[in-house]
Amino acid sequence: MPAAIGFLVMSVYQMIDVWFVSRYAEGEIAIAAITVVLPITFLISSFGMAIGIGGASVLSRALGEGNNEKAQKTFGNQVTLTLLLVGIFVVIGYLFQDKFLMLFGANEQILPYAKKYFNILLLGLPFLGWAMMSNNVIRAEGKPKMAMFTLIIPAFSNIILDYVFIYKMDMGIEGAAWATSIGYILSGVYTLWFLLSGKSELSLTKSTLRIDKLISKEIASIGSITLVRQSMFSLLAIVLYSQLNKWGQVEYADTLGAAGGSHSIAIYGLIRGYTLFIAFPIIGIMQGLMPIISYNYGAKNWDRVKDSVWLAIKWTTLISLVLLSVIVIFPEQLIGIFTEDKDLLAHTPRVLRLIFISLPIMGVGFIGGGYFQAVGKPIPALVLTLARQGLFMIPLMYILARIIGLDGVWAAIPIGEIFAGIWSAIWLFQEVNKKREALE
């Protein structure tokens, strides 16, 4: 629950960014700019998340086996790999920002605003990458409440600073960027304090910071699943925003003309806030589940592994059904929270309902991937991760868009989610039964 609460708060503060720029800054174009930038920043910071999750699986199993030396070396390797990789990709992002932003859907209208937002966010991304890595380490140690503060601290600071920078100081989208970037920095500073203050069981020495090929390979084999997942999110964003640009101009040619593409991306930007709000509690449960699975799998306590999996599926399904009911009944009110723009209010509620129709099965897909990742089986987790976007959603966007236009782009998201969830459920069920039969 602390993991779920932490990610829930994190999703809320990203929604607050959209709320402030929509009502007190540049409006629709600012929403579109933030929507374009976020997949790039998540891609860069996901190196820290991937190293954190991969290392947490290795670390948890080492602790479960009583191998403290390996746990210490794993942590040291996580630190070195995170600082090296995130730093490199922040520099690449800065040097090639125009190309990245245009690749991720920034058209001539969006690009100037996206650059303002992106340049400032780059300052905080190394701290975010560090915080994402450290968050998983702290949780793997069995301190989920402390890990939760890694996400809560930047959330509250971002909300306060959004108010100061955007509402009080009228800094517009740059104010939103500074608020977010400072939040990332505070999160990184908090985790650094925790790990160096003696509150952690882990410590850093020159020997543990040196790269160990075997440990790094194990971290990479498991963490690459997270990296591929985040990369697939970014690839999906590239395809989605290009299709929204293309078909949005066709759909809204009579009313908005060339601005129809930006309008479609802004629609998704509003919906994406709710996507984060809904997905992060589910991801939070998955994150809370993974160290429990890893530890008990290492300790050969299979009953606890099995019970934890089904408990997670039950809760993700229940949460999904409750949230879907709210979306179906109150779509206009939910969108009205963020914007007073008449065009956005006219077009977004219907799309909101359509995209979330697959919500009840989404949690099963996340739990399936998280299970295989936690037990150190990267291939099934990788296949499930690739299938969701690469095998289902992306091809469906091209196919359905050619048949029914812009609605085909929207419909590809829930249909792909349903296909991926069914596949994950079948694979997970087979794995659980196979392991139980082997033990019997």
Shape: globular
Give the uncertain stretches in residue-range form. Answer: none
Order of helices and strands: HHHHHHHHHHHHHHHH
How many strand segments?
0
Main sheet characteristics:
none
Q: Compute the number of helices.
A: 16
> Cα-atom Rg, whole angstroms?
21 Å
The domain tally reads 1
Q: Given the helix and strand composition, which structural class is it?
A: mainly alpha
Distance between the termini: 32 Å
Helix content: over 70%
Report the sheet-strand fraction: under 5%
Mean pLDDT: 85
State the oligomer.
single chain
Description of the structure:
With 440 residues, the protein is mainly α. 87% of the residues lie in helices and 0% in strands. The chain has one domain (2-439). The longest helix is centred in the middle third of the chain and has 39 residues, at 213-251. It is globular and about 65 Å long.
Q: Brief description of this entry?
A:
With about 450 residues, the chain is mostly helical.
Keywords:
440 residues; 16 helices
Write the layout of secondary structure elements.
Elements (H helix, E strand, L loop, with lengths): L1 H23 L3 H37 L3 H28 L1 H7 L7 H30 L3 H25 L3 H25 L9 H4 L3 H39 L8 H39 L3 H28 L1 H6 L5 H14 L3 H16 L3 H27 L1 H34 L1
Helix pairs in contact: 1-6, 1-7, 1-10, 2-3, 2-5, 2-9, 2-10, 3-5, 4-5, 5-6, 5-7, 6-7, 9-10, 9-15, 10-11, 10-13, 10-14, 11-14, 14-15, 14-16, 15-16
